[in-house]
Queue: 2 jobs
Job 1
Amino acid sequence: MGVPYVPVIGLVGTDLLARRDDMVVAPDPFGSGLKSVVARAMRPDVAVFHAQCADRAGNVSFGYHVEAVMLAEASAQVVVTVEEIVDRVTEKTADGAFLPSILVDAVVHAPFGAHPGGLTGRYPVDRDAMRAYAAAAQSDETFAAWLDEQVFGVEDHDDYVERFVPDAICGSGR
Amino acid sequence: MSVNHLDSRGYNDDELMAVLLSREVRDGEISACGALSQLPATGLLLAKHTHAPDAELIILNTVFRPFHTSRQFHFLAQRGELGLFFVSGVQIDRRGNYNLHQLGEDPDHPTMRFPGGYGGGMIYYCARRTVVFRTEHTRRSLVEHCDFVSAAGATPPDVLRLGGPSKVVTPKATLGFDAVAGELRLESVHPGHTRDEVRANTGFDLGDTSTVPDTGAPTSEELRVLRTVVRPLMIETGTYARWAERAIAAG
């Protein structure tokens, strides 16, 4: 949208609002006498998405409907990782949400890049990996160990897929 | 998981709640429920096939949704076009606040975290009526004060608000929201339960309940449509199909 802030109906009286410093209650500047929440615009430096496919120009087909276009529009830089690089993606051939190349700064070929999440139509959520993550997230120590193993301890994406994406999921994605 | 058995009343709690939720749907209105909402989804479809044939339904993440994006749903609600919304909360308090975020007295050190309420802190203020449902009626689910308020039942009169809480439906009772007092009141007690039992299992004082009536039991027609029309429809359309198979008796 490009505007500095927007009014929002709701949130007044919640602990959610009490804990945010980017939302305030403000009067209607047009004099209705009613107040509503006003939220400061979010302008992320970088947005990263994972999608089904993209072409080399950066046109992206998500493969399902997702609220990504707005986030891409708001972000200064947009990086999209994809299962597949294809010859050409257009709004007509895209499946689900379509992100035009003008909004995209970089496309990265990263098969199984949604793991341990799933990707609609390709492969399911890796429930065992999710459970392990949830268990590790219970304390700073176990979470640090999880990061060391799964994030900092891999050479690159291929190494990650080789070591952590189970055959059952690789198989269902091919 | 095992199939729900009918109890001595001739139906089970899931069927009862689906019927009670269906009665909140008004013909011609737009009514909606969010994700992971099998009971309201069932209630919406039951209403459509009984008293509200011209109700427009939005059942998120199923074939019964007119939009691809949640933005369209949000904006519809903000325009004041959403008549009824169904939501649940881990805690619901006397003032009609609900909690979908976290448990524990210290908000910085919660004892348990939940996914949070996507959009609930806005839909509760936009839908003309919201019916809060809860499958557990205990002192830990119906509380004096929510540990964390995800959406507020009442707001000051100078705050822009299009609608608010209408009722709370549990397996034991229905509570109505008194908008003037800003408090929940016991409205009716379901068949097979007593006022004393409801009071004992509610974490806030319900006041004088001596004149509170019984909830009208599901009629044979409601149960017939639920079991012979809605159940197969949910199974065919993949609308909480496995839940429907298990929870609703076969017709």
Job 2
Amino acid sequence: MRLRVRHETSYHYDAPVMAMSQLLRLAPRSHDGQRVLSWQVRAVPGRPLPFFIDGFGNIVHCHAINHPHRAVTILVAGEVETAAMDGVVRGTAEPLPPPFFLRETKLTAAGPAIVDFARGIGGDASALTVLHALMRAVGERVAYRPGTTDAATAAAEALTRGAGVCQDHAHIFIAAARARGIPARYVGGYLWTGMAPEHDQASHAWAEAFVPDLGWVGFDPSNGVCPTEAYIRTSVGLDYLAAAPARGIRRGDAAETLAVTVAVTPGDQ
Amino acid sequence: MARPEGELPAAGQGTDLSGFDEMHHAGACRAPYAMIRDWLEDLPPDLLRRKHEEAELLFRRVGVTFAVYAEGGNPERTIPFDIIPRVLDADEWMFLERGLRQRVRALNAFLVDIYQGREILRAGRIPEALILMNAGFRPEMQDFMPVHGAYTHIAGIDIVRLGPREFCVLEDNCRVPSGASYMLENREATMRLFPGLLGRHRVASVSHYPEDLLDTLRSVAPPHCPGEPTVALLTPGAFNSAYYEHSFLADEMGVEIVEGADLFIEDNIVFMRTTEGPRRIDVLYRRVDDDFLDPLTFRPDSTLGVPGLFGAYRAGNVALANAVGAGIADDKSVYPYVPEMIRFYLGEAPLLANVPTFDCGRAEDLAYVLAHLDALVVKEARGSGGYGMLIGPQASRAERDVFAARLRACPGDYIAQPTLALSTCPTYVESGIAPRHVDLRPFVLVGKEIRIVPGGLTRVALREGSLVVNSSQGGGTKDTWVLDA
């Protein structure tokens, strides 16, 4: 299906900010089941941003403002043709080998709680069965409740709290899969929820795990499904920090007001 | 997989640790030291002591300091300079130089490979997990190709001597090795303290090091850099233990010394703030660790780096020396495989030997190490500066027990090696002149070509019998002479 994305992020400050710098991982690349028809990431006002390809193969846009300012807007807009792949990811660049994705990070450190949780799931079944069971278990065990956790919450903590958002679901899934010896990684992207555009939408996050014979397969514990044609992948990494849609820093003592609108709509056929 | 380098060493309990005496061997003075012997014999007895005191004053006045954190007291102290030079003859140096070139070529080839196709892992020459699970392997660098394939542009290779023709590499320093300024200051000190001494002997000059370093840095500028490349030295700041060296080298090269806050990124290009407005930087000789380079890619809490610098680097708009990610090549758990790298990438037999190494992450190695702690040296796989190490034969029972507990808790964090009897050189001490253990750190510069200033930095353990030469552990330094053929 054809999906159109319009994602606008506006920062407003109550005092001038001297300088700011950001990296944005908000641009999809084409692969099987995902063809990018058009895409732009730009500052408003401003030219399209320069970019580089990072070690994971993500397109990373670089944004810097070196003069005092009180507001800045980032606009992401584009169109992608997707196809149902039953969650199987093919035709991606894959610069890093699957065993690399067994590496633990601070956000995905296993710890006793995760190891215990992971051990009980799926028994001796095949990796694919274990992963499906794991996806369901994460969704059941950790309620979707925004505001309980933040970007720095580690998997083990979110599991203990029993509540979080898609980022936490993904981290727990990843930590548990790795604890079972299955390479897993974080994925950032967009999701068409079927809701009308005026509805609150947000960018989404899920996980991928490496299954022998199949390769990388997506799992979305927040929705209990493998990604469908409603999903657009924009970044991968060991965890949120590596795949973050936006990582920024600013100089100046100001309070920030953030306004985000995401609209994912089926495009013209 | 076979053990990387031959058989397990028979750790020598009760080994003679007195070491090869570089001056006196088999009851005679070795040829390279003949003039040192004559010189010492001719010196009035009182002069050495006066020169020793003069040297101390000189270094304090020039301000050659090295901050030491782990100890109490004044952190800004001078590294003791020993006034008696260490001497290598032309043949010895030629051999070392060939070995160093070979080793550093292989280390760079490894780094290029490990961040691209990883052929050496595919060939089964190095265990895959050892690299991929190692924090020194930086996924951020995957598929990045630095100019001339140079990852480690300034490599400090620590060499110990075990016999007349036996030199071993103790460790490689591929990230931000320091010490070149001491090499230069030491030579300067010899010339001041003993005018004419160098002139009477044919000693290879080291004074062109800053020039070679600048040429090397310019040679790795991005290909589309406009005009003559602009080089700057990025320092963590005046509180860094090696700040003296940073300002010294910047000064000698005639380039700006900058801190993170002096730089900014515009359009993915690095600029330096100057009184005449922004100036583009093409090459950064950075003395800031990877972790602190850029809060947007590495540690988010770092204030030492430049936000966005890594993006400019990956886009090919600035060169960093040394490259990010070079630490995987000098990780102590990777070290045992360097001879394999030389065979794999260069198809040559290694000229410089490795020290046999136990990887405590392997069960059988751990068992052996625990059973022979009184004979081995144990080091942290990712430590440096001589901190957190155990010298078994010189440690107390209690110290060994503490280490045994640490080893059992995190075996993969440690390696062990037989205790090496480092060679000794005559050194000025309170009681007169006595042999003290030394090592050697030559600096290998890699850009369009490889250059090595003859010699390097000799570090000397000033305490009698001590085998730890690190300046952070109370070691001193010596001027190092390479005699012209």
